[in-house]
Amino acid sequence: MAKFALIIVCLGSIIGPLGMASVNVAIPDLAADLHANAKMVSWLPTLFILSSVVFMLPAGKLADNYGRKSVYASGLALNAFASFMCALGDSIEWVLFWRFVQGGASSMIFATGIAIITSVTPAAKRGAALGIASACIYVGLTIAPAVGGWLTELWGWRAVFLFQVPLVVALLTLIALRLTGEWKNQHKTRFDWWGTGIFALFASSLVYGLSVLPTLLGVVMLALSAGSLSLFVLHQSRSRRPLIRVQMFRDNRVFSLSLCTSLLMYASNFPLVFLMSLYLQYVKGLSPLHAGQVILVQALSMAIMAPIAGKLADKVQARLIATLGCVIVACGLLVLSQISIQTSMGYIVTSLLLIGFGFGLFSTPNNNAIMGAVQQHEVGVASATLNLSRTIGNLFGMSLVNLMVHYYLGDAQFTAEQPPALVHTFEIALLMSLTFVAIACVTSTLRGRAGNKI
After folding, report:
1. Which residues of 155-182 are buried (b: 16+ CB within 10 A; e: fewer)?
2. Residue 23 and residue 200: Cα distance in Å, rounded?
3. Disulfide: which of 82, 158, 373, 451 matches 101 by Cβ 3.0-4.6 Å?
4. Which helix (H) or strand (E) segment is 115 a member of?
5. What span, in angstroms and rounded, lies between the C-alpha atoms of 453 and 450?
6. Residues ≥6 apart with Cβ < 8 Å to 444
7. CA-closest candidate to residue 326, choices 442, 450, 428, 451
8. Distance of CA 311 to CAs 125, 138, 258, 390, 445, Å?
9. Would you put residue 448 in left (φ > 0), alpha (ψ -120 to 50) or beta?
10. CA 232, CA 54: separation in Å to the nearest integer?
11. Residue 150 pLDDT > 80, yes or no?
12. Residue range 80-112, pLDDT digits in tens
């Protein structure tokens, strides 16, 4: 059962990122077809991540109460439906709405996948299992740009949304026929609707506030975000049935600092794929297919390193391997930060390989440290929190890039006449990413020795 559950989660871990990341390569064609400006286009990845953040903790709590397999399968089905609706869109507003729905479905998948693996895998083999699952995520990310570029060139941007629907239907059939059993807590707890609403207010006001800075409204929204986050922490600490026990962060340094490191690393990496796709197509003049082939080298190196790092994490302290990965990512970003309009493709590919190698070395040991620091009855919430740190990192990094795009490009449509402004945005974003990774190196080092509680 453990092996088959791992196979199911791995297949979902390929399909999910494949559907999410392939869209980035299709953005120029989508923007041209729907007459969308730079500001609207930049919300495509941001709304997806925002929705994932808002619904991640509720999905983890529901999985613990009603079954991790059930929530996982429901997330797959909703993801396929939302993707199909995106393909029918005749306006950017329609696509943005269904991308938001798709992000919520993604939270149901990723909040439960790692929890399922952790529930059925012995602690001594957990690192290897998580390494395989992480590798599958990177396989999805690896082939996504090439698949997205190929589909866009052959059938247009709508095909990028449609192609994953039959894949999800096949996976759901496999789950129904072969994956028996369920994993959930023995006793249900009441759902914290107030906590969910407060957290949604925090995430939404943060994203919107960053997008309209430096206006007064932006400052007010960021203040609202900070206030609602403080209220959420206070509410969770006093609630008898919280979405997440905030004491887990206070009492468990390995858990809290590993999550902080994860947030910083993903904040540095997620905007890179979005901007690199635009840079390669608008600045370097590559086709969607060729741009996708260049971008995939980063995810390919991640996919190669993740299972190796997972096996190492079962034998060597996670913080040592993860910190080394952080340092290698910092070196890759430092190299890439020298990019310009004239930068050669070989230089870009080498930089992306270095970043991918380091990130693959970081991710699995870090995930193993987080899941090994909690008790069995909190596996679902821990899995959701792990993915929440990833999605909040993605959201925060992408929101800052949104701010840069709005400031330097504004309401203009992307055109071939904009390379200087786009390159300047890219340069600032890389410096931001480098700063995040430098802080992550420190938090990773300070986390302490990981245990194996599960």
Report:
1. eebbbbbbbbbebbeebbeebeeebeee
2. 25
3. 82
4. helix 92-120
5. 9
6. 257, 258, 261, 319, 322, 323, 326, 362, 366
7. 442
8. 8, 17, 18, 22, 20
9. left
10. 13
11. yes
12. 999 999 999 889 999 999 999 998 898 888 778
CB 269 within 8 A of CB 433: yes
Read off the DSSP letter of residue 215: S
- Residue of 27 and 165 predicted with greater confidence: 165
User: How far apart are alpha carbons 422 and 413 in whole angstroms?
Assistant: 12
The token pair at 24 is 């980035």
Tokens 């059938």, located at residue: 155
Measure the CA–CA gap between 235 and 229, rounded to whole angstroms.
10
Amino acid in position 365:
P
Q: Answer yes or no: are the C-beta atoms of 255 and 451 closer than 8 Å.
A: no
Residue 452 reports pLDDT greater than 50:
no
The alpha-helical segments, DSSP class H, found in 377-418 are 379-408
Question: What was the pLDDT predicted at 418?
Answer: 62
Sign of CA dihedral 429, 446, 351, 157: negative
- Nearest Cα to Cα of residue 229 among 204, 264, 261, 251: 204
Q: What is the CA radius of gyration of the chain?
A: 20
Angle separating helix axes 43-66 and 92-120, nearest 10 degrees: 40
Structure tokens at 76: 């797959």
Type of residue found at 107: S
CATH architecture designation of domain 2-181+241-446: Up-down Bundle (1.20)
115 and 184 Cβ atoms separated by less than 8 Å:
no
Alpha-carbon gap, residue 439 to 221, rounded angstroms = 26
Q: How far, in Å, CA of 150 to CA of 164, rounded?
A: 14
Q: Are 394 and 49 in contact (CB under 8 A)?
A: yes
* Token code pair at residue 44: 């495509």
Separation of alpha carbons 387 and 49, rounded Å? 11
**Distance between CA 218 and CA 207 in Å, rounded?**
10
Q: At what angle do helices 288-313 and 2-34 cross, to 10 degrees?
A: 150
Token pair for residue 103?
Answer: 């992000």
The domain ranges of the chain are: 2-181+241-446, 192-240
Is residue 258 within 8 Å of 362, Cβ to Cβ? no
